[in-house]
Amino acid sequence: MASVAWGISGGPVSGVAGGGAVMGAENDADEFSDRDEIMLNALSAGLTHAEAGGMAGLSAKSVQRRLRNARFRAEVARRRMARVEALSGRLTTLGQTSLSVLERAMASHSLPLAVRASDVTLRHLFQFRRAVELEQALAVAEALGEDTADDTADIADVPEDPA
User: Is the pTM of the predicted complex or chain greater than 0.90?
Assistant: First the structure.
């Protein structure tokens, strides 16, 4: 039986409740089973383990067990990030429209409206700048962590001195 739930981004999360392939079964094309796809879509949309399991005809515990698989967990994260990036694109477009509205308000002949628009603009500019700086710092920290992991792996590959 086909079912559709609505994810937190407002888009549908569809799947086949009940039937489908065995949970976790993978074919040679390195794809996920029908039930996995249902859980992946539901989890990446922000649904709970119980909700995702219900859509796939499984229990919340089954979903939690499936999340122990690193590949499955990584796919949930990848799909979640894709949703965030899509939402970010839409917000950027809306932001451009909003800035035009604020520009018109700031240029208005109403001083209180212009002051309020300026205040809103400056507060959001500060928040945006802070978010960008945090994102940049996180990227640097992640890169340093990867470099450290690479160095550790290189050290582990060095044969011991038979002295």
Answer: no
| Cα torsion through 59, 60, 66, 70, rounded to 10 | 170
pLDDT in tens, 40-88: 999 999 999 999 999 999 999 999 999 999 999 999 999 999 998 888 8
- Give the chain as a DSSP string: -EEEEE-TTSSEEEEE-S-SSPTT---TT----HHHHHHHHHHHTT--HHHHHHHHT--HHHHHHHTTSHHHHHHHHHHHHHHHHHHHHHHHHHHHHHHHHHHHHHTSS-HHHHHHHHHHHHHHHHHHHHHHHHHHHHHHHHHHHHHHHHHHHHHHHSPPP--
Tens of pLDDT along 101-159? Answer: 888 888 888 888 888 888 888 888 888 888 889 988 998 898 888 776 666 555 555 55
Contact 121, 102 (CB under 8 A): yes
